[in-house]
Amino acid sequence: MTTRQALRRRLIWQGCFTSISLYTLVIVCMGVAGRVTA
User: Fold this and answer.
1) How far apart are CA 37 and CA 30, in angstroms?
2) What is the pLDDT of residue 2?
3) What is the distance between the alpha carbons of residues 22 and 24, in angstroms, rounded to a whole number?
4) Transmembrane region positions (predicted)?
5) pTM for the full predicted model
């Protein structure tokens, strides 16, 4: 495996992890906001 492929794989994993983290954060924020307004 070349270093370029390893870097690309790491970038993809980082992107997926960031997306999941942001998605979870949005859901948590929406849940908290829903509780506050309700």
Assistant:
1) 10
2) 85
3) 5
4) 12-33
5) 0.62
The DSSP code sequence of the chain is --HHHHHHHHHHHHHHHHHHHHHHHHHHHHHHHHHHH-
- Dist. CA 5–CA 10, nearest whole Å: 9
Distance in angstroms between the alpha carbons of the first and the last residue of the chain: 54
Q: Which two tokens stand for residue 8?
A: 């690309």
The token pair at 31 is 């849940």
What is the pLDDT at residue 9?
Answer: 96
